[in-house]
Amino acid sequence: MAPIVLFDGECHFCDKSVQFIITRDPTGYFKFASLQSNIGRQLLNQYNVPQDIDSLVLLDNNTYYLKSTAALRICSKLTGGWKFASVCFIIPKRIRDICYDSFAKNRYQWFGKKHECMLPTKKQRGRFL
């Protein structure tokens, strides 16, 4: 199964992040689902992801990755210089996640909340579960 990115479907920044990934993933390596969707909730349960997660989750090879680890693993598969973001793995996870949590905590305040889902283009539809 292709790696799946679960994202907060209500978050403007998260929506833009999905578009960012799609643009830099021309081979369609990643699939996507919103955390709030039925399939998203089923996958969270199937992978035993903690219930209090409300931001980025990467499901890959029967394992889930959260927060900064998920973001860096995604970046490592993107085209361009984004692969080099994986150098941030040398930063201890605890420190990376403190930064991630601080950003995630303020994302609605800084970028707003969506009241409707984005409609993927015809070309993108096959990448969403």
Automatic annotation (TrEMBL):
It comes from the Bacteria. InterPro entries: DCC1-like (IPR007263), DCC_oxidoreductase (IPR052927). Pfam families: DCC1-like. GO terms for molecular function: protein-disulfide reductase activity. This is Thiol-disulfide oxidoreductase DCC family protein.
